[in-house]
């Protein structure tokens, strides 16, 4: 009898796991408590995979040898608790996919910066001609990539939810960028448990695998001081401390570890800001470990384009640069954006407030921001917080008007920065919609010749 496997959740990871499991000879059943999108329903139907939506049929789910669950489903849900009580193993899609390839895994986690670092590593390796796949939290399932086959390296962005329910999986190169409070409702509001989830990245490592970590991050240092962590450590940082494997000097990254001694020029990289220096050090370290030369990395850095809505240049009008950072939906992300820009800034901010404390931004706004355009339904909190340090502050609920207002404040050489610090749901469907609308408004302004 074929082994039976149940998959909970029919999104990208669930359907990828289902198709891989079927290819490996499993009898597959997919169950989604909600509605399955047309795209994934069509994929399951075409493959002849048994599935249900709108409910969980527990008898069918529990009549299996193993359960793969979507990262969005907590272990505390009744269907998972019931499985564990019955002794049925519950694993992640990443754990399952890792069984079926001999390729090397380069895995990236952290509270912030994961996507940029993942995309940069993928770009560096692909530009150098390596057979490399991009997968994980960045948008495509690892299982689907493994099913496609033909890759020597898999660059995988991992959230803490994906790291949960991973047991035998091993990263060959693991990168831990930072740990700051996030998703604590999934970890009983205990930072220790959230940090432990992030450090699952290093589980199963031996001395022949590498853990690159941010030496400057206090919570990483605290966890390492109190726990044994596997793998060969590769610390990177911006503070001039002894023992750093990767550090910055002027516009170069200096690397010295594991027999590697290299200098990589970052002057042509489009990434700006201190946070991107950490991301770049991690990416360069990974690229060196897989054998890229400094010259190959220099070239790759110069041609990299970051993901949309993350410090994305979207146009220039009369010498004024417009940057779309719509993904910056919290105060910390905005701090990094403001800190990274050296030119005078006209800041477009606002949206649905998430209980923000803007106090950490006040010194940067006072120093760098010449005018503020508040784009939101309710801007009262922004006006109260920032008008004392930036008297030139106007309000609007229209993105086209916001761009025109911002241009009116700006001079040649200035930057107009959309970095909202808020959710988008008051005026837009999501942050992508907000970012696209901003970019379109900039193009309209450019076409009008105003």
From TrEMBL:
<keyword id="KW-0132">Cell division</keyword>
<protein>
    <recommendedName>
        <fullName>UDP-N-acetylmuramoylalanine--D-glutamate ligase</fullName>
        <ecNumber>6.3.2.9</ecNumber>
    </recommendedName>
</protein>
<dbReference type="InterPro" id="IPR036615">
    <property type="entry name" value="Mur_ligase_C_dom_sf"/>
</dbReference>
<dbReference type="InterPro" id="IPR013221">
    <property type="entry name" value="Mur_ligase_cen"/>
</dbReference>
<keyword id="KW-0436">Ligase</keyword>
<dbReference type="GO" id="GO:0016874">
    <property type="term" value="F:ligase activity"/>
</dbReference>
<dbReference type="InterPro" id="IPR018109">
    <property type="entry name" value="Folylpolyglutamate_synth_CS"/>
</dbReference>
<keyword id="KW-0131">Cell cycle</keyword>
<dbReference type="InterPro" id="IPR005762">
    <property type="entry name" value="MurD"/>
</dbReference>
<keyword id="KW-0133">Cell shape</keyword>
<keyword id="KW-0573">Peptidoglycan synthesis</keyword>
<comment type="similarity">
    <text>Belongs to the MurCDEF family.</text>
</comment>
<dbReference type="InterPro" id="IPR004101">
    <property type="entry name" value="Mur_ligase_C"/>
</dbReference>
<keyword id="KW-0963">Cytoplasm</keyword>
<comment type="function">
    <text>Cell wall formation. Catalyzes the addition of glutamate to the nucleotide precursor UDP-N-acetylmuramoyl-L-alanine (UMA).</text>
</comment>
<comment type="pathway">
    <text>Cell wall biogenesis; peptidoglycan biosynthesis.</text>
</comment>
<feature type="domain" description="Mur ligase central">
    <location>
        <begin position="108"/>
        <end position="287"/>
    </location>
</feature>
<feature type="domain" description="Mur ligase C-terminal">
    <location>
        <begin position="309"/>
        <end position="422"/>
    </location>
</feature>
<dbReference type="Pfam" id="PF08245">
    <property type="entry name" value="Mur_ligase_M"/>
</dbReference>
<keyword id="KW-0067">ATP-binding</keyword>
<dbReference type="Pfam" id="PF21799">
    <property type="entry name" value="MurD-like_N"/>
</dbReference>
<dbReference type="InterPro" id="IPR036565">
    <property type="entry name" value="Mur-like_cat_sf"/>
</dbReference>
<keyword id="KW-0547">Nucleotide-binding</keyword>
<dbReference type="Pfam" id="PF02875">
    <property type="entry name" value="Mur_ligase_C"/>
</dbReference>
<feature type="binding site">
    <location>
        <begin position="110"/>
        <end position="116"/>
    </location>
    <ligand>
        <name>ATP</name>
    </ligand>
</feature>
<keyword id="KW-0961">Cell wall biogenesis/degradation</keyword>
């Amino acid at each position: 009898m074929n082994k039976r496997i149940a998959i909970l959740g029919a999104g990208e990871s669930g359907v990828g796991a289902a198709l891989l499991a079927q290819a490996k000879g499993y009898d597959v059943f997919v169950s989604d408590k909600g509605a399955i999108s047309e795209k994934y329903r069509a994929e399951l139907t075409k493959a002849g995979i048994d599935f249900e939506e709108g409910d969980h049929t527990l008898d069918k789910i529990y009549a299996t040898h193993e359960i793969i669950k979507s990262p969005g489903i907590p272990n505390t849900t009744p269907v998972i608790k019931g499985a564990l009580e019955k002794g049925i193993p519950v694993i992640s899609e990443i754990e399952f996919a890792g069984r079926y390839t001999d390729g090397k895994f380069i895995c990236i986690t952290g509270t912030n910066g994961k996507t940029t670092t993942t995309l940069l590593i993928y770009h560096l390796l692909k530009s150098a001609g390596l057979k490399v796949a991009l997968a994980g939290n960045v948008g495509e399932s690892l299982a689907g990539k493994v099913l496609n086959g033909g890759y020597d390296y898999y660059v995988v962005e991992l959230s803490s939810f994906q790291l949960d329910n991973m047991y035998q999986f091993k990263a060959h190169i693991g990168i831990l960028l930072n740990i700051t409070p996030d998703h604590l409702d999934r970890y009983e509001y205990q930072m220790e448990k959230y940090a432990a989830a992030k450090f699952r990245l290093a589980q199963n490592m031996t001395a022949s695998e590498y853990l690159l970590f941010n030496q400057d991050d206090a919570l990483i240092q605290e966890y390492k001081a109190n726990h044994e962590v596997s793998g060969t450590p590769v610390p990177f940082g911006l503070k001039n401390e002894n023992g750093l494997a990767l550090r910055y000097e002027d516009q170069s990254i200096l690397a010295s570890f594991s027999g590697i001694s290299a200098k990589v020029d970052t002057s042509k990289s489009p990434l700006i800001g201190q946070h991107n220096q950490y991301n770049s050090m991690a990416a360069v370290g990974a690229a060196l470990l897989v054998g890229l030369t400094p010259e190959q990395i220099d070239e790759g850095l110069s041609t990299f384009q970051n993901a949309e809505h993350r410090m994305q240049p979207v146009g220039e009008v009369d010498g004024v640069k417009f940057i779309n950072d719509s993904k910056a939906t919290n105060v910390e992300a905005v701090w990094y954006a403001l800190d990274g820009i050296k030119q005078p800034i006209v800041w477009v901010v606002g949206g649905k407030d998430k209980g923000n404390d803007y106090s950490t931004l006040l010194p940067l706004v006072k120093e760098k921001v010449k005018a503020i355009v508040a784009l939101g339904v309710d801007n009262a909190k922004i006006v109260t917080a920032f008008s004392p340090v930036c008297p030139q502050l106007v309000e609007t609920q229209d993105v086209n008007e916001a761009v025109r207002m911002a241009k009116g404040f700006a001079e040649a050489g200035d930057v107009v920065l959309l970095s909202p610090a808020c959710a988008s749901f008051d005026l837009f469907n999501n942050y992508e919609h907000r970012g696209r609308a901003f970019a379109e408004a900039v193009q309209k302004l450019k076409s009008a010749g105003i």
